[in-house]
Amino acid sequence: QVQLVESGGGLVQAGDSLRLSCSASGRTFNSYSYVMGWFRQVPGKEREFVAKISRRSSSTDYADSVKGRFTISRDNAKNTVYIQMNSLKPEDTAVYYCAATNSMFVPNIPQKFDSWGQGTQVTVSS
Length: 126
Known about the structure:
Layout: E1 3-7, E2 10-13, E3 18-25, E4 35-41, E5 48-53, E6 60-62, E7 70-75, E8 80-85, E9 94-101, E10 115-116, E11 120-125
Parallel strand pairs: 2-11
Antiparallel strand pairs: 1-3, 3-8, 4-5, 4-9, 5-6, 7-8, 9-10, 9-11
């Protein structure tokens, strides 16, 4: 079982930056075995993909809505994944979730991720 804990959310103004962190742990957790992702959700809407990063950081993928503004990274020695969010917009307001999967094929949908954090609120005011 993998435990994920997000941190770094908060209230910012449009144009500001935030960095979210996700710390992973588990009795047999091996960071190199997991693809890590970030998703977000607003009330009344489905959880949507934001970004993901491969096991050894060789590849990343982003939702079109955040491409060029958000950067996902990871530090496997620290079992931590980050997402740097720049030029934030009010429409980025959501609860942000960290997710992990050890599946080999990982499409950008929440159903393919096995473990989830509790989420951290990001609010961007205009």
